[in-house]
Structure formats: structure tokens, C-alpha cells
Task: inverse folding
């Protein structure tokens, strides 16, 4: 048994993890309307709001560009929904329970408050219910997917 555990530990660094991001372009393939809404949002431009001199500070990039080390600027889909390496596949996303089991996060107030808190500079009090409509990327996406469904296609789970 210890030999198996040792083998797994040696191989584990190369295995994909649920938290591994795939990037917004991957999400765009199935969610073009959500991608379009996001790409015009303050989240997509979040790094631009950080003064140039502070863009290397982890306390700034942790919220404004959490995947910057991977070359992805801004607050992307996966900053809120979790890294998509394991759930981004169409067959997984069609099974709501499976998608959540392998890492898809349904963000809520706690997700937002990880960055939108009282310690964030220049932010007033964050009110989740008031701010949520400002990032609405799901309404157009659901409508687009509903219009594209045919009797032969499997429905995408609602979020």
C-alpha cells in the first residue's frame, strides 16, 4: 500500500486538478453570449484599474487578475465559477450534479466578498443584491442556448 501512495504522490503534480483554469476562450465555445457580456464588463478590465506600479503586487492581482501567473488578465469566468479543467467538457456540463462534483461553483455572496470586502481600497460597501445585475451574463446566455436547442440536443443545466 505505501508503494501505491508513493507512486500517486510522484505522478500527482502532472495530473489535471479541478482547480486548474482553462481560460475564458474555452468557456466562450459553449457560452458565447456570457463571454460577450463578460468581455465588456469591469471584471474583464479589472487589471486595468490597478495602477501600473502595483500590478506586480499579489495583494492587488489576487483579486484583479487571479490567473495572471498563467497569462490570463482580469477576473475571468473561473475566478468565480472555479477552475474548469474537469468540468468544461460538454458531457460534464450537461450533468449539473457531475459538473458541481468536479469543481463547478455556483457563486454567491461569499464568492464575491472574497474580493469585494471592506479592506479593498476605493470600494464602498458591497451590496450583493444591488451589484448582481451589473454582472448579469447568464440571461442572454440562457436565451441564446434555449434558441439553439433542437429536439435532438440535450438541454444544458440551468444555473
Result:
Amino acid at each position: 500500500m505505501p508503494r501505491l501512495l508513493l507512486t500517486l504522490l510522484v505522478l500527482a503534480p502532472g495530473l489535471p486538478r479541478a482547480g486548474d483554469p482553462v481560460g475564458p476562450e474555452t468557456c466562450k465555445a459553449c457560452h458565447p453570449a456570457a463571454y460577450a457580456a463578460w468581455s465588456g464588463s469591469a471584471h474583464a478590465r479589472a487589471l486595468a484599474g490597478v495602477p501600473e506600479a502595483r500590478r506586480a503586487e499579489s495583494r492587488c492581482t489576487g483579486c484583479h487578475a487571479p490567473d495572471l501567473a498563467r497569462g490570463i488578465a482580469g477576473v475571468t469566468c473561473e475566478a468565480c465559477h472555479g477552475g474548469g479543467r474537469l468540468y468544461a467538457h460538454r458531457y460534464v456540463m450537461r450533468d449539473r450534479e457531475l459538473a458541481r462534483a468536479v469543481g463547478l461553483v455556483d457563486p454567491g455572496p461569499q464568492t464575491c466578498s472574497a474580493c469585494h470586502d471592506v479592506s479593498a481600497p476605493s470600494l464602498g460597501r458591497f451590496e450583493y443584491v444591488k451589484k448582481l445585475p451589473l454582472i448579469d451574463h447568464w440571461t442572454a446566455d440562457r436565451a441564446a442556448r434555449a434558441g439553439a436547442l433542437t429536439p435532438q440536443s440535450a438541454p444544458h443545466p440551468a444555473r
In short: The longest helix spans residues 138-148.
